[in-house]
Every structure is written in C-alpha cells, then in structure tokens.
C-alpha cells in the first residue's frame, strides 16, 4: 500500500500539471517579492530613479540699468512681466513641422485674442499693401540673407540668393519649416508655401520658427513668442498647456519708458540681439548670447555695455513632466549700471510741445478753402497755400482714419457710403487703365493729371517688382527718354519697347510657354498690373484723392468719418452746431487742427516736422534734443509690435527719423557767421570795412542777387552785414577769399571757408553719443557758399555746436548727452564731461562785431521786444524745392551779456526763418521762466507773425 501511495505521489509531483503549477507559483512568489521590494523596501529610491532627470544650465538675465535726466527724473526702467515661450520638445520626423506650426497657430490665436502681440524681431515686414518687404538695407540686408541661407559671410552668398525678394525669402523659409500645405499629400513637390495661412499669420509663425532654429544648437533653450503679456494670456496659456507642447510662461522684465514720445529719439529702445549685433558685441564681451536683449538705437545702444548687467547662472534638474526637482550652483545676476543724461526732462517736453503747437499755427494760417493750388513760375515758395482738400485727403493718406473698417460689418453710415463710392471708383479706374493700356495708348503728356499719376505709379512698380530690370535699361535710349523726360509716348509703347529690348524678366510673369511672343508677354504684364493694383495700398489710397476732387466724397463726409471712428471728440455744443449744418467742414477741420485734436504729424503736410537742440554754452552739455514727431518706444521694446512698426514705417511724417541728428539741409544765412570769421581772420575785411549793396553782385558771369533786390542795402560793415543778412555783402566776402592776386579762384575761396567751418566744428559730427549724419561743407561756388548755399548741409545738432562756439567766443566742444553713470545703488562710477575739440582764437574786437550783429538781428524782430532777456541770434532760410516751402532756421544764445544757453531750431519746409525764430523765443521764455508754463504750453495752435519775405 505504501508503495502504491509512493508511486502515486511520484506520478503526481512529476506530472506536467504539477510542474507547471509549481513554476507559476514560484514566479508568483518572485513577483510578489519584487513588488514588495520595489514599492515598500526601496519604493522611494526607485520612484526617484524612475523620474527622468534632465540637467539644464540656465542663465539668469540681469536687470538693465535705469536712465535718468540730469535732475534725476526717471526716463527708462524695468518692470516685472510675463513672457510666452516655446521650447523644441517635438520628436523628429515627418510630422514635426506640422505639429510645431499647429501649436504656434493656436498659441498666436490665444495671444492676439487677449490684445497682446507676437514679438517681431525679423528683418521682413508686411507693408500696407500686404506685401513682404525688407526692413534693412545694405550690409545689414546681406548679413541677414547670409544667415537665412546658411553662410558664415555675406561674401559667400550666391547671386540668386543676394537678389532674392522678401517674398521669395519668406517662401524659401516656409518650405524649410513646412508652413503651408501639400496639394497632393505625400508628394513633396506639391508643397505650396503659405497655403492655408494669411500673409500676416505666416510671417508670425515664420518669425518664431526662425528664432527657434537659431537656438537649435543649444539644448533646452526657450524661444520667446510674446513679451509682456497680460494676465489673461497667462491664464489662457496655462489652461491650455496640455495641448501646447513646449509652451510655458516665463517671468521676465519689460523695458518701460516714461513720457516716451518726447524722448524716443534720444533713448532709442531695446530688442532681441541680431546675428550682426551679436558678432560685434562678442568682440568685447563673450557672455552675450543669441537670446539677449540689447540696445537697438539711441542711448540704449550707445551705453549698452554700461546698462547691460552681468548674467547669473544656475543648474536646474527637471523631471519628465518639466517640473523643477532640484536647483544647484546658483549665482545671482548683477543689475546693470544707471545712466544720467545731460537732458532736462521738463525743458525737452516743453520744447516738443512748443514745436507742435507752432506747427499747428503755421498750418492753420496757410490752409485756404480751395480745392487745389497750382505752383507756377511766378509763385513764391514763401506764399504756398494749403488747400483744404489736401487736408481732407491727408485723413486717408496718412491713416488717420482706418480705411479697412469701412468694409467691416460694424461700419457706420458714412463709412459704408464712402466705401461704396470707393468700390465704384476702383472698378471704373481699373477698367479704364486696362482700356488705356490695350486700346487707347494715350501719350503721357495728353493724359489727365489723375491718369498721369496712375501710369507713373505703374511704371515705378514694374521697376521695383523686377518686371522691368532697371539694370538692363539703357538710360540714353531715345524711347526711354521719350517716356521719362519728354513724356511724349504712352506707357504701352514703352513697355512693348522694353519687351523688344529684353529689359523684361518674363520669369516673374505667369507664362507657361517659354516661347511666348511679345504680345502674349505684354498681355500678361497688363494682367499683372491690374492684379497688383487691386492689392496696392498706395493706389487704393490715391483713389480717395480723386473721389474728393470729383465731389464723390465731400468734406462733410471726411468730418463724419472722424466722428464715427472716434478719432476726434467735440463738445456737445459743437456737435449740435455740426448736426444742424451750422459749421462748415472747412471750419470743422481748422478747429480740429487748432485744438490739436489732429496734430501736424498726423496730417503730414508741410510743415509737419521740426527739431530743436539746446546746449549749455559753458560746458557743452546738451540740455534738450528734440525731434518732432516722436513715437512710443514702449511699442518697440520687449518685442516689436509689428502692427505699430508697420504704421510708423508708412507714416508720411516719418517719426522714426531723428530730425535733430539725421536731417541735413543747407544752413542758409546762419552760415554767415562762418563767412564773417573767415573774412576778418583772412584779412579780406576789417570791422570797419564797408561793402556797398546795390542788390546784385556783378563780378560773376551769372550774377546772384541779394534777397532785397531790386532794392539794395547800401554800405554795410560786417556787423551791418550780419544784422541785415545782406547776401551781397557775403558774396563779396566769398569772392575776396578766392582772390589770388587779381584772379578769382573758387577753389581757394572754398578752402578758406572750409577752414573756418571746421573751427566751428561744422566739418565733423557734433560729438553726441547717438547716431548722427555726417555734415557736408560746401565744395562748389565760394561766392554762394558764403551765404550758406553751395553744397553746405548740416544737422540741427551740428548747428547747435556751431552757435555754442559763437556764444562762448571760441570754445568748440564735443557735445555730450551723458552726465554720469552710477551703480544700481547710486554710487558714482564715472562723471562725464564734454571735451574741448578746439578753440577759435580771434581778436575780441572781431568777436564783438559778430556778437553785436547777431544782437541787432534779434532787436529788429518785433516779437522779441520786451521778452525779458537779451538774445543774440541769426536767422536762415534754405530753399530745397521750388514747389515746396523753404526750410526755416534760427540759431541764438542768451543772455547776450553773459551767455548761458544756445539754441538751434529747424522747421523743415517751414516757409520763413521768422517762424523758427518765434518758436525759439517761446523756448527761451520757458527756460528763463518769463511766463507761466500754462501760458506757453497752451495745448492749442500757436499763432505766429508772418516775417518779412527774404532769402536769409
């Protein structure tokens, strides 16, 4: 029995089922043990080990230093802000581009829905015609193209790369980043760049992708999509984080500017460093990186090394969910140093406002209730009037009203009616242009002025678009001259001739047949012209001019557009008067300008710009450097607002241009102090020499005339010559300077004038720390150069250094905008002061004669009577164009007995020097506190006296 039991047991334990059960049981025990070990014994250890640990070396940006005025008033500072960033966490593969682009598309929707803007730090922008264009030129453009096409140097660019249009560059990059759609899925050759996106959205996605690509060589580097975003954007991004791979919110600082419009041209703004800037900065500081924020212009750029702090660093470990699990090796950043300017904040703001309200006063005095003004040979540039219809058109031409809103579903009554008039006009003009090109072929000189403008505009576009290759055009060709100079042939004839001469690039046209004949090519050009005009903002805007002149849009319509779009607000009393027809559209518009509801800058009619520089004559400090109009540099820092930047670029008043440091014009009669100095020092005149002015200078073959001709000034010494701004007196001085024995040499005369212009600092930049144009000392016609004509051309700040040297009797400073620098705790680091460039060593009797002449200039101005401070100055009028007003200039110093400040003022196309002198008088009144500020800065148009018509 035992044997049976034993045998049965052996069979049982050796059976396959038992073996299988045993194995399974053993495995179960092992599994239980491992689970116990993993979760209980070593649970915490393995949990930490399971979590993905990524080591990131992060830099901690330093706070940028503040900028203050000379009195410690804050001008630029930093504010805590949030930025939206994206990191490339996407898996490589065929679907990567589509995934990133989809994320960015949804992210941009969120950002813009909340009123924030995507940063635009790309060198291609959209213009008003919804076309791509470069926003850099020259070497900067070549550097950008080299970066785009992967070259280390612009010299490596192929011809076809360096000649790419902005649109072609965009399309190339869109292909690289997959921004578009495939017409046939899976077929790479069927990819259409930008398909499925607007031009605007494609550019925004492209900008981010380009910046992400620039960071691709560094791991775990975020790319900023939008800076200084609202709390709502932060909340929305975080709420949608699970669908926005790689997107996060980062704490940062935003650069802020106080009363920005007044100081934008001096301070400049900050932005992301470009490749070109980075290469330059790394020459002196290797710590700069591709994502750094640096000064892009103005003091921000000039004092970059001072304002830029020292970065900190830390080592961060993150898990597979992106959460920080450990931080080590923390090194704090060091804030940048502070910069104090020589600028006086209050004085600068006052001068800016004085210029603006004075420009408004000039405009109001020149506007007449007429449709047009025709300049004739007998017209004077000092008597040009502004037709009210030019004012009406400026409302459209300079984007005062939003033309796009006319076609929206929220458009109001006048907007809708005006838009319908526009549609009708647009259709009629396009049809007539097609008819003109294909059938009528009217010679240019037989066209109406309206259609002459259209044809000129079309021709210009054919050149700029590369349809007609301007490099191939023979400028001496008879047909070319017949079109451009003689204007006796039609545009059709010129285009067909260009085709025959192979000046046309057919590759830019939609021609499938490579053997197309000239008629087919011409037909495609006509189609191209019509298609392009349909999207051409300048053409579309111009239609409103002719709608106004034809009476299809009235002045009343323009005023109602301003009211409907809430561009202007009027009192209930005026609104009631307007509604019942008690106020004309002419009066309505003049009132808006008088009240500065619409500013000279917005109208962009002559004059709409001005500049003024105030210096301390005893130190060379610049107390005010004013350029009107300015802009809001808050919109340019922290990631450029693309829409605002586009508006600035298209603004006819050019607010991005520094009129105080970049604009150059002839100095007019302000140059006569140089000529006086040259004449006295070279011994061709003495303080007692008398030169007779009979009105005409007859020692040259083509005799120039004095401004007083046909009358004359009679006999004048140098003081009288300055006082009366006598052209003939200084013609004679210029002539004598060129005498070698009894022979006149204009070259010798020019050399002597240049010698003394150099002594006053006019041959070089003024010394200020921000960008400035190179001056031009005249190199032709010594006689006319002696009165500030010839090729003399100077900036306002250059004239300010010149008059500063006159005021202090010979000390020529290198002007400065920097007072001192301190650390973030206020400890002095460096005390700046202007350096002396040279001195003008001249007998005091000569200085006295010059100063007295300048004093008498001002004493003869009735508007300077009883000012309360004695002033010496010199007016200047410079003609640049016969059919535009003259430039208006004035230089001065005060007090006459013991000078403290000097001022140079220029009003481009400002009619008469009298206006610049009166504007300067108001600045002097403010500086010396001769009136209450409210009486000086009224906030309304300043009425100015008409000065005597002269050519000083």
Plain-language structure description:
- The chain is of the alpha+beta class and 952 residues long.
- It has 4 domains: 2-50; 89-257, no CATH class; 413-547, no CATH class; 610-936, Beta-lactamase, CATH 3.40.710.
- 42% of the residues lie in helices and 15% in strands.
- The radius of gyration is 36 Å and the shape is globular.
- The model has no long low-confidence stretch (mean pLDDT 92).
Please provide a brief summary of the model.
The protein is an alpha+beta fold and 952 residues long. The chain is built from 35 helices and 29 strands.
* Shape summary: globular
Major sheet: 7 strands, mixed
- The CATH superfamily name of the largest domain is DD-peptidase/beta-lactamase superfamily
Question: Rounded to an integer, what's the Rg over CA atoms?
Answer: 36 Å
Number of domains: 4
- Portion in strands: 5-15%
Q: How many helical stretches?
A: 35
E-strand count: 29
Distance between the termini: 144 Å
- Mean model confidence by pLDDT: 92
Can you tell me the CATH class of the largest domain? Alpha Beta
Structural class: alpha+beta
